[in-house]
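User: quick one
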Amino acid sequence: MKNLAYLKKFYKKKLMDAGIIDYDQETISLLSYSLKKSNIEIITENNFLVSENHLIQIDKFISKRIKGIPLAYITNERVFFNEKFYVNENVLIPRFETEELVKKFIDFYKDSKIKGKRLLDIGTGSGVIPIILEKKIPYLEFYALDKSSKAIEVAKKNIFIHKSKITLINDEIKNSKLDSIDFVLSNPPYIKSANLSNLPIDVKNEPSLALDGGTNGIEVIKEIFEWESEINKNNASYILIEIDSQIYEETKILTNKYYPNKKKTFIKDLNSNIRFVSIT
Ligand code: GLN
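Assistant: Done. Structure below.
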C-alpha cells in the first residue's frame, strides 16, 4: 500500500513528464475521482493509504490521460458556468469561451427591448448553452438541435440532471423545419478541415463532427444562415455564433451576403481573440 503523499508526487511527475500542462490540478482531480474524495481532502490528506485495487484503477486513468484522453472524458464531468455537466467522447468538452457566449446573450437580452420567446441552440452537444440559459431566463422557450444521436443522448442526460424542459431535436439544421425562432445561438464546428491534423492530441480525441467546419471552416454556419432565411424567414432578431480568427474573413463575407441590411458585430473574447459574431 502507498500513501497519498507518495502517490501525489509520483503521478504529478508522470503527467508532467508526459507534457500535460495542468499536471498538478489533473493529478488531484484523477485521485479525487478514483478515491471518491473531494479535491481538498486529496490536497490535505497525506497519510491516507490507498489499496492495491484502487492503485490499479488510478494507473488505468493516468495512462489514458497520458495517451491524450481528456480529463473530462475520464471523469465524465465538466463544470460550465459553475454547474456540473455529464460529458463523454461523443460531445465537445464545453469551453470557457462558450461561457462568454452565454453571458453575451444574457447581457443582450437584459438590455434589449426585443421580446421574442423561442430560442434555438444549433449543435447543442452536451446541451450546456440552453440548460444554463434556461436557469437564467426561464420564461423563454428553448429548442436544442444536434445532428449526432449520440450527442443527443448526452444532452438528454444533462436535461434530466438539471430538471430542464428544453425540446431536443436530432436533426441537421439544413433539414430542420423549425421556424418562428426569435434567437439563434450556436457554437458550431468551425475548424478548417485541413487544420484538423494540427490540433493538439487532446482535441483530436474530441468528436470531429463537433470540430470540422469543412474546407473553409464555415460550412455549418452557411447552413445556419440558409435555414434562417429559407425556413425561419429571417425571423431571428438576434443571432450569436462562436467563431475564431481563422474564419473571420470567410464569416464576414457570408454575413454580408445573407444579412446585408442587418448589423454585424465581431466580438473578441477575454484573450482578445475574435470569438463571436452577432447579427441583429
Ligand atoms: N454547444 C456545445 C458547446 O458549446 C457543443 C458545440 C460543438 O459540438 N461544436 O460546448
